[in-house]
Amino acid sequence: MSQIHVTTKINGDETEFLCGPEETLLDVLRDHLGMTGTKEGCGTGDCGACSVTVDGRLVCSCLMLGAEAEGHEIGTIEGVAKGDELHPVQKKFLDHAALQCGICTPGFLVAAKALLDRTLEPTEEEVRYWLAGNLCRCTGYDKIVRAVMDTAAELRGA
Amino acid sequence: MRYEAPSSFEEASGLLAGETGVTRILAGGTDVLVQLRSGLVEPDLIVDIKRIPGAKDITRTDDGGWRIGAAVSGAEMGEHAELKAAWPGIVEAVELIGSTQVQGRCTMAGNLCNGSPAADSVPAMIAADAIAEVVGPSGTRDVYVEEIPLGPGRTRLEKGDVIAAIRLPARPERAGDAYLRFIPRTEMDIAVVSAGVSLCLDASGKVLDARIGLGAVGPTVVNAAAAADAIIGTTLDDAAIAAMIEAVATACSPIDDKRGTVKFRTKVAGVLAKRAALKAAERAKA
Ligand SMILES: Cc1cc2nc3c(=O)[nH]c(=O)nc-3n(C[C@H](O)[C@H](O)[C@H](O)COP(=O)(O)OP(=O)(O)OC[C@H]3O[C@@H](n4cnc5c(N)ncnc54)[C@H](O)[C@@H]3O)c2cc1C
Ligand code: FES
Ligand code: FES
To answer: How does pLDDT run across B84-100, given as a tens digit for each residue?
Structure first.
């Protein structure tokens, strides 16, 4: 089967890869590029574990072909921390114990950061709606929502 | 499977027309990728329309209406303040599709062509009397959105047809639209029943014109013309609303399943149509 050559930027780095036409961006990240921080829960857009950004917009990498990444900027969980320095939202997830098994966490962090990049004044309702496409079977969501609200408060200096 | 990303709709149409096997058009991919994953469909050719110039544009038409490119996502429509002000019901319907992640990709044309009777944007588009600009092997033609659904998963589009854009008409004075759906939770679910209403009022507050689209009450989204007739010429008084609800019930032929019985869907369709009509009228007066 013919492979497709794709040029993208991932977390700011020019990246080229070859992928099969059926392969999703999630397959490419995990299986070709070794970026296994992005998780697969359902593979059908329901759980959000595979969340990444494309040109800053939050999407499910399981609902996108690798070939569709051509010319676009992809942001993954690996790009959320700056080197060893965790992003504020990552620190708050730890402070609030907003994770248990952790499988949903990369998706939540990428999604939460995408929200905080748009607004530092989300209401709790906005946070809950924004994160409705991210499922967690462990935490019951409340600690996650509090961690995000607290990050927003910290970032706006409140 | 072959993946192509042509640079014009004519080229896209040519690729689709020339393929003898199974084809899919890739707009947001939020239905197509799920089908690929489930093995439900094994396309020989996927034609990605997102690299076509203009496919992601929202523009005004010469007559004051709107042209929404076929690859414009729900999130992009939601962020377009002017479009939202002109067609709040359309935009609220599109914004109900899926999660934030799905919003980043999903399109109205994909929602329409996936052929679900519960597709959220379709009742609102039918209420708006939206037009699909279809590029096919013999050129470009306008098709009313209402004429496109044929049954679950089926459309009246033919081999080689691609929707290039959805057009919404110009809004007269005192016009408004609204879309409501019933789901058992608040987010991330498929409509059990839904209703879209678009109307305009005269200076005295009487309904001059109206259209009503109903979702998930039959094999396709329904244009409930008799229900719209029941409110035209009225001030949406109780008698007019009662007549509309009766006509809505007549237009419903839903299925019975674990998500809703025939009786429930028929009843709720009337309730939603009433609320959507009142909300549309309120917006028309604002
Ligand atoms: C988690 C999740 C939640 C969802 N929730 C909802 C919901 O609440 N409400 C709802 O209505 N839907 C929902 N959906 C379904 C889906 O997101 C919508 O139907 C969406 O609008 C499809 O648009 P798309 O651009 O992604 O379509 P695609 O997947 O790209 O295409 C869908 C179909 O349309 C055809 N097509 C696409 N573009 C064109 C075109 N320009 N011309 C001709 N044919 C075309 C394709 O060949 C394909 O058959 C959900 C899906 C997921 C994964
Ligand atoms: S793996 Fe993509 S949404 Fe679940
Ligand atoms: S922490 Fe286990 S699924 Fe969220």
So the answer is: 999 999 999 999 999 99
Q: Return the H-helix or E-strand segment holding A107.
A: helix A105-118
CB within 8 Å: A65 and B105: no
Nearest CA to A115 among A141, A158, A80?
A80
Same domain, A10 and A71: yes
Q: Which residue has the tokens 């496109």?
A: B148
User: Which ligand has an atom closest to residue A99 CA?
Assistant: 3
Strand ranges for A65-151 from DSSP E? 73-75
User: Rounded to an integer, what distance in angstroms lies between the CA atom of residue A66 and that of residue A75?
Assistant: 14
Regarding whether A32 and A8 lie in a shared domain, the answer is yes
A21 and B2 within 8 Å at the Cβ level: the answer is yes
CB burial of residue A142 (10 Å; 0-12, 13-18, 19+): exposed
* Overall domain count for chain A: 2
Q: What is the ipTM of this complex?
A: 0.97
Report which protein residue has its CA nearest ligand 3's atom 4: A136
Beta strand extents in A39-127 (DSSP E only): 51-54, 57-60, 73-75
- pTM exceeds 0.90, yes or no: yes
